[in-house]
Amino acid sequence: MLIFELNVKVDVNTLSRELEAARDAVNRATGLSNMAACARWRHDGSCNVIGYNPCSLLSGSMTTNMNHFLDNSEWAESRQLHCVRTANHISEEFETPEDCTSLHLVPFDSCTVVALMDKFDLQGIAAATFTPMKPNGDINTSIVGEYVTYLVENQGVTSIFLNGTSGEGMSLSTAERKKLLEAWLCAGRNRLKYIIVNISCSSITDCKELAKHAEQVGASAVAITSPSYFCPATPDALVDFLHAVSLEAGSLPIIYYHIPVMSHIPFLASTILEAIGNKIPNFAGFKFSDLNLFDASLCMHNSGRRCPLYYGVDEQMLTGMLMGAQAAIGSTYNYLGSKNIEMLSLLQNEKFQDALNIQISIQKHIASISKTGITVPENKVIMSYISGLDMGPPRSPLTACGASRTSQLHRAVDSLQSLSRI
Predict the structure, then answer these.
(1) 229 an active-site residue?
(2) Are residues 151 and 51 both part of a single domain?
(3) N or C: which end of the chain has fewer CB within 10 A?
(4) Global pTM value
(5) Catalytic one of 287, 333, 339, 385
(6) Which of 256, 257, 311, 333 is catalytic?
(7) Is residue 78 domain-shared with residue 128, that is, in the same domain?
(8) Neighbours of 409 (CB within 10 A)
(9) Are 71 and 182 found together in one domain?
């Protein structure tokens, strides 16, 4: 078996072309056919490509030709193509590193792209992003790059949850959701650590399509909640649904999005966890958007295996983290991310009163707008005002805030200088 390697910075759209070019170049240099190529690719943009030929017998002239190609090819030099050697089995070259768990298999031509993504280990906070829209209601991907810059540079937020409730995902077409994911992946390459995408739909066929797309383009993980029109009658029926979708996601981590106020599922998350058992090998925990902290604790501490929990109620995030949540995902982290990061830092340093003071301040901010929670239209107004990025209107059937309500929201933000001017 002939092995070659190259290291190159690529995006998801360039990867296949680079691999194919590498394979063809080596085929020409060695005279071999059916050379395959694989890649270890991570979110920082680094790509370790390994090519191999499954043939176990290699002539001396093949190796000589290959070495000549390496020494004299400008193309090979620019991509640091190197290291011709032999191996008995391809498994010798593709053992999963400790920091990688997601193995992606993407066929192209006669080759297979094997992308080993960074081990999924969400910590801290992730912003549940809003979907920018034009005045006519079409999605507006043109400001996604600026959105990424604002999150990273102004808020210190480096992970996102895309196409969720805040992103109006259930009001978007599958084509729009794919386009948004691709835009965020492109803009977030080398800048965002994790891009989690919600693939929930009423149709299992659409869920599978979005799962497969997320795996192919390089999302960090997928999240899915239960269909809410025809609801599963039992936890086992829900798990069967989740399992069927998970098969289309390859080895991408699967997060169950527990949001009973929207999904109308009566089952406790802890009951769902029991039903999941070991049926979904790539199950990676819950996005827990519920007030029932007892149920959350049962998920984290009373199951046979510790279940990662990403808490989704912004106004009591500190409590969720004290209970043992691994991270928090929420809409207000789009514009209050830095304050929440400060609060978590205080918590980690056991400065509990200082952390609590920030949580109370955030609660006052939320309560000044609505004691029952901030709606998506209101959040888009606030985000637009604080960030300077036009989030546009919500999509029907949600309605945009009128002029009077918009002014009220602006005044509410202005009255909380310590939180808003960050």
Answers:
(1) no
(2) no
(3) C
(4) 0.74
(5) 287
(6) 257
(7) no
(8) 23
(9) no
